[in-house]
Amino acid sequence: MKRRFVLSTLLVAQGVVAASSFFASPLVSPPLGGFRDCVMSLSERHPPPLDRRGLLLLGTAALVLPSQPPPASASDIQQALNQARMEKALATRRLERFGRGETRLSEPVRREIEDFVMEDTWRAPTLVRLAFHSSGTYDKKSGTGGSQKGTIHYDRELNQADNKGLKNVVKALDKIKSNHDISRADLYTLAGVHAIEMMGGPVVPWRWGRVDATAPRETIKEGRLPQPDMGDTPKTAAHIRQVFERMGFNDQEMVALIGAHTAGECKKDNSGYEGPWTPTEVRFDNLYYTFLRKWKYKRDNRLTGRGGKMQFEVEGMNDDFMMLPADIVFRDDPKFRVYVDAYAEDEALWFRDFSAAFQKLTELGTRDLKEDSVVAPS
Ligand code: HEM
Q1: What are the φ and ψ backbone dihedral angles of 84, each rounded to 5 degrees?
Q2: What span, in angstroms and rounded, lies between the C-alpha atoms of 305 and 89?
Q3: Could you tell me the residue ranges of all domains in the chain?
Q4: Span of the secretion signal (predicted)?
Q5: Which residue, of 3, 136, 168, 237, is most buried by count of CB atoms within 10 Å of its CB?
Q6: pLDDT digits over 91-101, tens only?
Q7: Strand partners, 144
Q8: Ligand 1 site: residues with CB under 6 angstroms?
Q9: Domain 84-224+362-375's class?
């Protein structure tokens, strides 16, 4: 009922948001403030329960629909917008597959992942991070780590500092696992690729057959995932290349993968960093590259000394869009920069390259995987 009501107020809310962007537009305000407000009007961050925009939305909803109870908060409205967008993205993909006469064996599991994400759409980026962390431990020389064994659920690995913030989604996926004949290792990667599809990103081919570890001793020791800051840009660049080359990736693939930071946000309690990279937190678009290329970032020390770390903020914009020192490397290293520019200009190109790189990532260390999609004989 609450959800139906929220959906019924969407048109009103969208009208209000459009109107507030207009009044904040450079046409009617000074250029910098105008841009900032425009960006914020697009923002999909969890708004605080009753921020200024929330009050505006609620006030308008109450005026237009006096007989209806007001929604709990502006974040309910944003959540409903996210749900509507996700439902549309899923329907479009289903129609495409239907046209090809294609069925996916993983469909029942995907439906449960959808239910889990639809309850709180901001979970989608966290599932992508989980897929990365459960695969990105791979070492091509020794053949250890990777997505093959699904070891991230063991406390030894889950409690590592790099994995802070992933416990809740791992526990929730445990419940989904208990309803299906699927390994954890398969589920963690499937949840990531399906979340990307839900956020309107590319379809990432997914194959199954990973075999779970049977004991915690098979977990990988801490220290294989990339660190956000090694002190300065050249050192951080060298570190990123060393980590991703160990997995078997080249420069172009590294840049394609880091574009996943277009979705989600950093939380101080998890990583010591805070804020989203872009205003479209649960949308998979190439805005990360556009921001990196277009805006000037400067060091932001507001969190240092308050349990947080040095990050970058957009110069002249009094907002909390941020970049990690590691993200800034992709802007400043000339070899990485070529691809940042290309992906900023061509989202379809990024989708294609991201899909290939993410499939490769989620198949690191695996053997004998089986196809998920089946085409019905015509
Ligand atoms: C240089 C490499 C990378 C570094 C240093 C890095 C670092 C980080 C950090 C510090 C966070 C914030 C975590 C938190 O506070 O909760 C984060 C979040 C995230 N990372 Fe990365 N990351 C890297 C590469 C990647 C890759 C390759 C992917 C996927 C392909 C990815 C996907 C994500 C996503 C989706 C989030 C948001 C999670 C959420 O909203 O809960 N990252 N990353």
Answers
A1: -60, -40
A2: 42
A3: 2-78, 84-224+362-375, 233-353
A4: 1-19
A5: 136
A6: 999 999 999 99
A7: 139
A8: 125-126, 128-129, 132, 165, 226-228, 240, 257-258, 260-261, 263-267, 270-271, 273, 324, 326, 358
A9: mainly alpha
